[in-house]
Design brief:
This protein has 6 helices and 10 strands. By secondary structure, the chain is of the alpha/beta class.
């Protein structure tokens, strides 16, 4: 396939407590080795995120599921909840997004039984916050988490189930508090009880728990709030190395 071409995506819908939810996925991938459920930012769309990042081409061995957020939960720059987004804490919107994940993951495990222990959550901005919430409330459904440009300081308690994670932080982020993003990464290090680290380059450091094999990949770049495209190859490496 030409690098400028994207793998075709299929639209799916399902019902959760009377609400229609939808997602896009690269169903034509022949033998996926893992599943990544992707959450766009507040005001975004699954289609827009897929067009911008084309993750199905970069994570070429994975089934990529771009879930569509819906309006209705206020907060941050969207106080009235008029834009597409995700719940930020337990109880928001009667846990509509947590229940959507319960149903979606159940379906994916049924459709891809060999991948039931190889499902990852990946979120940008408000979607990253939701990814931290999933770690807090639904850790058992996932093998690992990828978070760009948000924080989970209030969600990363010591009682959490440890999972490998990748956190991407922009030093010039003016949307989400940078200090809390960095503190979240420190809390994940503590949760995983990392006892060694490897500096890969100026942006990426990998922290490990030698005994358990769990890892935190922390990518700190000089940019702002957006997910930097140079980080994508390192996310792919994280997915490959966590299987």
């Amino acid at each position: 396939m030409n690098k400028t071409e994207s793998t075709p995506l299929t639209t799916h819908t399902f019902e959760v407590n009377g609400t229609t939810r939808s997602y896009l996925s690269n169903d034509e991938v022949p033998t996926p080795k893992y599943i990544v459920i992707v959450f766009h930012g507040n005001g975004g769309t699954a289609e827009g995120f897929a067009k911008k990042y084309v993750l199905q081409n970069i994570f070429s061995e994975g089934l990529i599921v771009y879930l569509q957020g819906i309006p209705g939960i206020g907060g941050g720059f969207d106080p009235k909840g008029l834009k597409n987004g995700w719940q930020r804490k337990k109880g928001d919107g009667e846990d509509r997004d947590l229940y959507a994940i319960d149903m979606l993951v159940k379906h994916l495990k049924s459709a891809y039984p060999k991948l039931k222990d190889k499902i990852y959550a990946m979120g940008h901005s408000n979607g990253g916050r939701f990814t931290y919430l999933l770690w807090s409330e639904r850790a058992g459904l996932f093998n690992g988490f990828i978070i760009n440009a948000h924080q989970g300081v209030d969600l990363l308690g010591a009682e959490l189930e440890p999972r490998s994670a990748m956190i991407i932080t922009g030093r010039q982020d003016r949307v989400v508090n940078n200090a809390n993003q960095l503190k979240s990464a420190d809390l994940v290090q503590s949760l995983l009880q990392c006892d060694s680290h490897e500096i890969i380059n100026d942006e990426l450091t990998i922290y490990r728990n030698i005994k358990t094999g769990l890892k935190l990949h922390h990518y700190i770049h000089l940019g702002g709030h957006d997910l930097p495209k140079p980080a994508l190859k390192f996310i792919a490496a994280f997915l490959e190395g966590s299987r």
